[in-house]
Each structure stands twice: as structure tokens, then as C-alpha cells.
Design goal:
It contains 7 helices and no strands. By secondary structure, the chain is mostly helical. It has one domain. About 25% of the residues are buried.
């Protein structure tokens, strides 16, 4: 999947995707899309600063409604299951230096969880 397709997918995310489209993208190469979007450290504002800022940015971009604290905790657990916040910063730094580690898989898990929230589909 090239940059143009990744950009198109991001635009679709901003304007809302249906659940089937998200599941199809996840099954057929969300890794490539995320790799394309994450090649520049500034691609996602706050991505290396900690999981809370990262979640806030994704929620701001993709969810038209305010999420509850328990929903944010659910997303955070999908991103860093049971780990302290600083682990995300370490994993993100490793990802930027080597482009290989669990950060991408954790982002995929968090995005799948986000897409499963009813609030996501209220656009």
C-alpha cells in the first residue's frame, strides 16, 4: 500500500469509515498504512510523549463525541496492556530508530478497539 492509499485512508478516517471498511483495512494491510503514516515522528502529534497524549490525538481526529474516562482507560489498555505509561515512550523511541518492535502492533490493537466504540460510529 502506497502513500496515496494511506493518505486516502487517513482522510476517510477523518470523515468516518464504516465498521466493515475498518475491518477490511485491518485484515489487508493496516500495518503498511500505519508504517506510511508513522514514518515521520510528527505524523501523529504527541505520539512519543506518552500514551495519554497519543490517545487524545486519535480520539480528537476520529471520534465526534467526548469519551468517558473508562472508555479512555479501555483504549489505553489496548495500547499498553497493564504496562506503565513510560513503556510507550520507550517502545515508540525504539520504533523510530529501528522501525521494528511491538509499537505498530499496539497501535493496531488500539485503533481496532477505537473503531469498535459506538461513539466512533456517531459521525
Amino acid at each position: 500500500m502506497g502513500y496515496d492509499q494511506a493518505a486516502r485512508l487517513l482522510r476517510r478516517c477523518l470523515f468516518g469509515l464504516i465498521r466493515g471498511e475498518i475491518q477490511a483495512a485491518a485484515a489487508s494491510g493496516l500495518t503498511a498504512v500505519l508504517n506510511g503514516l508513522l514514518t515521520a515522528p510528527a505524523a501523529i502529534s504527541g505520539s512519543g510523549s506518552g500514551p495519554n497524549l497519543l490517545l487524545d490525538e486519535f480520539v480528537r481526529l476520529l471520534v465526534p463525541l467526548t469519551l468517558t474516562a473508562s472508555q479512555l482507560a479501555f483504549l489505553k489498555n489496548a495500547l499498553i496492556p497493564g504496562l506503565p505509561d513510560f513503556e510507550w515512550t520507550v517502545e515508540w523511541s525504539q520504533y523510530l530508530s529501528a522501525r521494528k518492535n511491538a509499537a505498530l502492533a499496539k497501535l493496531q490493537a488500539m485503533l481496532k478497539a477505537l473503531a469498535g466504540l459506538a461513539e466512533y460510529h456517531q459521525s
